[in-house]
Amino acid sequence: MLEKEELNKIHEKMVKLLKVINGFIEIILNENQHNEIIQRYGTFIKEHINEAEKLNSTLYSEDTCTNYDVIAIDDDNDALYITKSVFNSQNRRRKKEITLKCVNDTNTADNELDRYIPKVILLDINLKRRYEIDEGMPPEVKDGRVYCRKLKNNNRFRDIKIFLLTNHEWNLDQMKEEANADGIFTKPFTTRKFKLIEGFL
């Protein structure tokens, strides 16, 4: 699993590569100032450098969102990174932003749900990472299906649309029924899956 520091290093290398490519294009442009195709390449690369820098700033800034449309619960930071990337990409095409809160475990999710009720929850089925629980705190629910049933059996949360996320590609309908979930997706979260939940937001 990639940690934030490792992902930042990868991001920096990708931006550096884009800037190197942009440098070569500028050299070629100086020699071919009236070549429209090369000018388009230059514009394309510069736009992607700007987008990459914006993405890094958004993904790794402190997540202080309190009133959100969607909460994603997953102990895999790489999976959350992909989900947040999809939301950021789609929000650039929307007039009204769809806000996302990412958490790593069900205890944190419980705390968030006490403060605010989202419209949709994206819930990983296998929450395997072990967390240190403070004395007196309830044990963390590590099976997303169990946590989904817990929420659906609570009148306060039963109207939230809950979509399970899994790495498995078999018995999807069975897992959905066991959890009393509203839907189930295989990982990773994608633009197509975003559009499937968009109607509930």
Give the helices and strands, then pairings.
Elements: H1 4-31, H2 36-60, E1 70-73, H3 77-91, E2 100-103, H4 106-115, E3 120-124, H5 144-152, E4 161-166, H6 172-179, E5 183-186, H7 191-198
Parallel strand pairs: 1-2, 1-3, 3-4, 4-5
Helix pairs in contact: 1-2, 5-6
Task: Please provide a written account of the structure.
This protein is an alpha/beta fold and about 200 residues long. The chain folds into two domains: about 5-60; about 70-200, 3-Layer(aba) Sandwich (Rossmann fold), CATH 3.40.50.2300. Helices cover about 50% and strands about 10% of the residues. A five-stranded parallel β-sheet has the order 2-1-3-4-5, with helices on both faces. It is elongated. Mean pLDDT is about 80; it is low at about 130-135.
Spans of 5+ residues with little confidence (pLDDT < 50)?
129-137
Number of domains: 2
Main β-sheet, in a few words? 5 strands, parallel
Beta-strand portion reads 5-15%
Question: What's the architecture of the largest domain in CATH terms?
Answer: 3-Layer(aba) Sandwich
Instruction: Trace the largest sheet across and list its strands.
Output: 2-1-3-4-5
Alpha carbon gyration radius = 21 Å
CATH top-level class of the largest domain: Alpha Beta
Features:
2 domains; 5-stranded parallel beta sheet; elongated; 51% helix; Rossmann fold; 201 residues; 7 helices
